[in-house]
């Protein structure tokens, strides 16, 4: 989605952008780097938290003293970390990971995909496409689809049926949205397909990873609310509802008619069974099988999943 650009920016300019009180010497950086691969003339970050929203701590310990061996580097970190560092220029932040991302977006990267529709894509009639939309190579966009402003749809993606995609959403390559749900009825001799004639509503600022599928509902609506983030190789079944700002990690399966609340985290390889309801702010541990309903703030692990503790948020 992004590509690095050539740049040279002063630390004080970055500090001004972050509204961080920086009093050490001013110098220029031209690179971004990680604590695993530190480079001279770069900006990097350190945080004890891998995600502040879900209160998840990083599991890797870094030797920050080694940073003294590099020239012209600046570290974005919190006040606690700054107090135990010497001779290392620091920009203090309450959320170092977020501020590092903001600095990258402002000074170090360009958008790789500019608005436009690739000539190899098939765009049917009777649909709506907003402004500044990117549709990559070999996509199919069916009739009755509505695409909001600033949406990006990457290569080999298909969007079918009565599907609405909100503004600023991103759909990565090889994804299918609006496919038939897995619904069959055994008539005593063979399995007959239950026709799916419902719709899909995808909110604003949604991210859907590569090789994922979002099934349209049988009769009603499959709903992906604003700011939902869906990783690679995720299946979202028909008639499912996913609440605002929920994250769903790679290889997870959300079965049909499931209802997932707001601000939930579904870790990799998990399964949310048919019709299950999860409350707001739930966390589902890796490879869990959730087969029954759970209330708000549940932290779940296991197969079948059980409550490990309550989420303190």
TrEMBL record:
Keyword terms: Acyltransferase, Lipid A biosynthesis, Lipid biosynthesis, Lipid metabolism, Transferase
Single GO term (MF): N-acyltransferase activity
Lineage top rank: taxon: Archaea
UniProt keyword Ion transport, yes or no: no
One record GO biological process: lipid A biosynthetic process
One GO CC term on file: membrane
Pfam family, one: Hexapep_2
PANTHER family, alphabetized: UDP-3-O-ACYLGLUCOSAMINE N-ACYLTRANSFERASE, UDP-3-O-ACYLGLUCOSAMINE N-ACYLTRANSFERASE 1, MITOCHONDRIAL-RELATED
Protein known as: UDP-3-O-(3-hydroxymyristoyl)glucosamine N-acyltransferase
Organism phylogeny: Archaea, Nitrososphaerota, Marine Group I
